[in-house]
Design a protein that fits this description.
- This protein is mainly alpha-helical.
- The protein has one domain.
- The protein has four helices and five strands, in the order ββααααβββ.
- The strands form two sheets. The protein has a three-stranded antiparallel sheet, with no helix packed on it.
- α1 packs antiparallel against α4.
- It starts with a strand and ends with a strand.
């Protein structure tokens, strides 16, 4: 705890200033700078968006790509990740060259240009971006002399599809419990 201290000039030592009851008087609370807080918030949001996108990609195949529901889900997760990346890289309006660069960093599974790219390769892109976020977290901690941010853990999602009805179900606990995939 940081508090007020008085310095004894003869001994060059600092002693806490105490109240009448002997308790130290607390000084001003240390607060992280606003720039740190904004960057930390952006890193957390990006990490969370990447986890969601990665999980959605795991169930996205050439067959599921034909489903409008699956396309909508993966498209929404992708767009969220792209918007969060915009914040990480401090970009303005997302258009033109900036958008093209981001789409090369995080591939769009719905684009005709990514058809020849496997889902596993798209997931590797997400994993590489997660590594970049982790390194930015380390650098942020060092620059602002703050503890590293605890990033959201990746939640493993298992998917199954009933071949007769086409219904998709997901499990987040290794297959012990299942729920409908429509979120």
């Amino acid at each position: 705890m940081y508090g007020f201290q008085s310095v004894q000039p003869r001994t060059a030592t600092a002693v806490p200033v105490t109240a009448a009851g002997g308790a130290p008087i607390a000084g001003p609370q240390r607060q992280a700078p606003e720039a740190y807080s904004k960057k930390a918030d952006a890193l957390l949001n990006m990490s969370d968006a990447l986890n969601d996108y990665r999980n959605e990609l795991k169930g996205f195949t050439n067959v599921t790509a034909l489903s409008p529901d699956a396309r909508a889900r993966v498209g929404q997760k992708y767009q969220n990740a792209l918007l969060q990346a915009k914040e990480i890289y401090a970009l303005g309006v997302l258009n033109g060259p900036d958008k093209q660069i981001l789409e090369q960093i995080i591939g769009n599974p719905l684009s005709i240009t990514t058809v020849p790219i496997s889902t596993e390769a798209l997931i590797r892109q997400v994993d590489q971006m997660s590594g970049i976020i982790e390194r930015q977290n380390t650098n942020l901690s060092k620059v602002y002399k703050q503890p590293k941010i605890e990033m959201p853990k990746q939640q493993e999602i298992t998917r199954i599809r009933n071949p007769t009805t086409g219904e998709e179900r997901i499990s987040t606990d290794g297959g012990n419990t299942w729920q409908p995939a429509g979120r």
